[in-house]
Specification:
With about 325 residues, the protein is α/β, with parallel strands linked by helices. It has one domain: P-loop containing nucleotide triphosphate hydrolases (Rossmann fold, 3-Layer(aba) Sandwich), CATH 3.40.50. The protein is built from twelve helices and eight strands. An eight-stranded mixed beta sheet has the order 3-4-2-5-1-6-7-8, with helices on both faces. α1 packs across α11 and α5 packs across α6. It starts with a strand and ends with a helix.
């Protein structure tokens, strides 16, 4: 069992769309968790079209936790994604509810860890503390006895009542960003903070980057160089394909985004399996395994999992320096007009 958290630094690069798409295409059973503190439940309003009310609300789970019945109520709060092996845990319906969910996230993490206990007996993340946290007055008999991965939509970083506990407990944090200058500027400050925390806390989650849209004006490789993190994948611009997961539209037979998401789901799953194998095989404490034993080529010339040098963002590569606007007083630059 793994917890994969998707976040953004600025703008709207499609975190919710990607989370739903990955869940639909995930190679094993998965639960997509709506933890965006902005509220409004974009999955219920988008993918489900507002026609299917949730069986339980986030407030119901908060009350169940206080009563000591969270493990029993959690499965009843899940909504199946039609024609998939995935389910959805709807999130707060408003920003105010996100505050009440802060303690709930702390309680759900050990519960999620125990979901994969039967099939991951050597899990490096499931601890006695996890078992104690759940067994204190609760029962896990209602939980499915099958490996289940969790895909968490944590929304934009830095928001009030953000699910920080989930981000810290993740096995992998995926920072989604577009390839323009404002997105890159926002991404760099968060990747620098994540890198600093990982140096002091080896148990901190690994971070990787997924770029979205055309590789302009910066390529994925240039983004990896600027933020100092490996590029996991690049998702192509496909508005029609994205509408399948963001608004519940009819799926097309051929979709560039669907193809990219299928590859991304496989890459994440393979990477985490390899990570667990290396850690279970005696990796040194604090040692981070290589993201991929065989890097794969991705759009824009970047290699997934490629190690890159950190360069100051204030000095981007000369090849991507934005061109200066023409001087109206110079006829050679304006065509003599």
């Amino acid at each position: 069992m793994s917890i994969i958290t998707l976040v953004s630094a600025t703008g709207s690069p499609g975190v919710t769309t990607t989370a739903v798409g990955l869940a639909c295409l995930w190679p094993s059973p998965a639960i997509v968790v709506e933890a965006d503190p902005s509220g409004s439940s974009a999955m219920l309003a988008g993918y489900f079209g507002g026609f299917q009310p949730p069986p339980r609300t986030m407030i119901d789970l908060v009350m169940a936790r206080r009563a000591g019945h969270l493990a029993e109520e959690f499965p009843a709060a899940l909504m199946p994604l039609p024609n998939t092996r995935a389910q959805v845990l709807p999130g707060p319906r408003s920003h105010a509810q996100a505050r009440s969910a802060l303690d709930l996230w702390e309680a759900l993490i050990p519960l999620w860890r125990l979901l994969g206990q039967a099939t991951m007996t050597n899990s490096d993340r499931t601890t006695d503390a996890d078992r104690t946290a759940v067994d204190s007055g609760e029962t896990t008999s209602a939980l499915p006895d099958v490996r289940t991965d969790f895909l968490v939509d944590a929304g934009r970083l830095g928001m009030q009542w953000s699910p920080e506990a989930v981000i810290r407990a993740s096995d992998l944090v995926i920072l989604m960003t577009r390839c323009d200058l404002p997105s890159l500027a926002g991404a760099q400050q968060w990747t620098a903070a994540a890198d600093e925390r990982r140096r002091g806390h080896p148990e901190a989650p690994e971070w990787m980057v997924v770029t979205v849209g055309p590789p302009e004006p910066y390529t994925p490789h240039e983004i990896a160089t600027a933020v100092g993190l490996p590029i996991l994948a690049s998702l192509r611009h496909d508005p029609v394909g994205a509408a399948v997961y963001s608004h519940g539209r009819q799926a097309r037979r051929r979709s560039p985004l669907r193809s990219d998401l299928t590859s991304l789901a496989r890459s994440i799953s393979d990477h985490l399996d390899e990570r667990q194998r290396l850690l279970g095989g005696g990796a040194r404490a604090g040692e981070s395994p290589r993201p991929f034993s065989e890097p794969r080529s991705g759009p824009g010339g970047a290699r997934a999992g490629e190690s890159v040098d950190r360069r100051p963002f204030a000095a981007p590569p000369e090849s991507v320096t934005p061109p200066r606007p023409p001087d109206p007083s110079d006829p050679t630059q304006t065509g003599g007009r």
